[in-house]
Design a protein that fits this description.
single chain, two-stranded parallel ribbon, 13 helices, globular
Amino acid sequence: MAGILQAVMFAVIAFYYSKQEVYTNRFAQVFFPLIFYVVYSFLDGSEYTPQGKYWPAFQKWSFWKWIVGPSGYFKGSRIVYEDKKGLELTRQCIFGAFPHGAVSFHHGMMMSDGAGFISAFPHLSCHRRRDLAANVCFKIPGWREFLLYFGCIDAAKETAKGVLRKGWSLYVLPGGELEQMLTKEGEHHVYINNRKGFIKLALEFGVDLVPVYTFGETDLYSIYNFMYPLRWWICKKFHVSMPLIRGVGLSLIPRRVPLHCVIGSPIKVEQSPCPSKSNIDALHSRFKQELQKLFDTHKASCGHPNAILKLH
């Protein structure tokens, strides 16, 4: 259906632009390109497909090194591998990444090759992995393309299953919008106690689980509590997060805080096409234990020796 609409709209725009008077009509100059963009991008439904609009050259663009690389804007940022050999042997997995943070700048370290992950593990990135993002992200012009080119797709269950059926890996931020609302400067909050969807997927497809935690993500912005109860209710009711943040000065530019993205050892998962509640709960508990262990093991070397991980 989207393809038919695109073809029709293309024909309509081509017809109107064939008329000489259109070139002097300010309304037409703005309106038709806008409609063309809406039809060609917003209605193509690519975010609901495993393929998406992944653009390899965009992911590997050297510019990203100046943002998330060791010498980039977040100077001193790095990826720490707890079990590099284990990742090399892993063919397919689900990365469970925390914390979401106010914006999730650490995600850029994994979506791009700015920090070297794609070069180190091409079989767990690029064309063999998709990253899940909230549906609302694909409703924002410009930001939609930005995420799609990085290999992000809609976080719907069926979309995620489609990726796993292809034998590809997934990168998930299970805490989502609620964890985003829990973000507090200098604190480490993880919303995971009721997040078991990615655990169930791992069991159904028998893929490894890899815990990921990034130190520094919650220090990029100051967070305001103005009308927090109302914003929390809206977030739970409508799945829309509205964090009130301030970065450098009074701007939304993040502070130059180093990001230390720690990737844990793969957790081997035995396939269970119809996992029971007890199986899901058991694996969920183990994942939380591994995440806690990952946090405690690396917090000192990542500049947060007194940090305490709070699970919600």
